Amino acid sequence: MAGLDKRVTSYQQALAGLEDNMTVLAGGFGLCGIPENLIAQIRRQGTKGLRVVSNNCGVDGFGLGLLLENQQIKTMVASYVGENALFEQQMLSGELEVILTPQGTLAEKVRAGGAGIPAFYTATGYGTPVAEGKEVRVFDGRHYILEQAIRGDFAIVKGWKADWYGNVIYRHTAQNFNPLMAMAARVTVVEVEEIVAPGELDPAAIHTPGIYVDRLIQGSFEKRIEQRTLRTGGAHVDA
């Protein structure tokens, strides 16, 4: 039986139903593999009070940093502050609630949410502020803390190539958090560089099956580089 055609023709359609105070899962790592056009659409829509879950929060003036500038994020769940000075400023001032989570734990919390696992035990963070208020158990003589899974209302994901049915392939390291986010939301929206007809993708190469994808849109991407290092005359120069 043929699958459902997931394509939409506008970013307004792609994010229809996104409302204030929802939880948004955003793929990407630094500026690699971020759904930059979907983020820009959230800014245009002006959706506020969002709880955003992502590895980090973009940079000043780009990526999720655009939503910080517009004060659309109420709570940020991330593994590090990164290169975003505004993120740091809003966190230290108390304007932005930040839940810093170890990177592997964050990935597993989202993966568990997508797999239908409500919680899991991990040794990461035991004995640190990360463990405060969390259940602790001992397995084989080692302490573990209970971490709850994460699910979202919307997931915004960046892929490389997809077919009409929403089967997605990511390119190299741009895969990062994207497949995890795609599995863990009520509505998953994927933007890609190329959409091909059904049957053109090698089934063995597909990273995210279309069953997880609700909407698919083709976009063009700026693909900024967060840190560019050039070699000049034998010395490294950071640009």
From TrEMBL:
UniProtKB keywords: Transferase
Transmembrane segments: none
GO molecular function term, any single one: transferase activity
Origin: domain of life: Bacteria
One of the Pfam families matching this protein, by short name: CoA_trans
Family: Belongs to the 3-oxoacid CoA-transferase subunit A family.
PANTHER family, A to Z: ACETATE COA-TRANSFERASE SUBUNIT ALPHA, KETOACID-COENZYME A TRANSFERASE
Protein name (Swiss-Prot/TrEMBL): CoA transferase subunit A
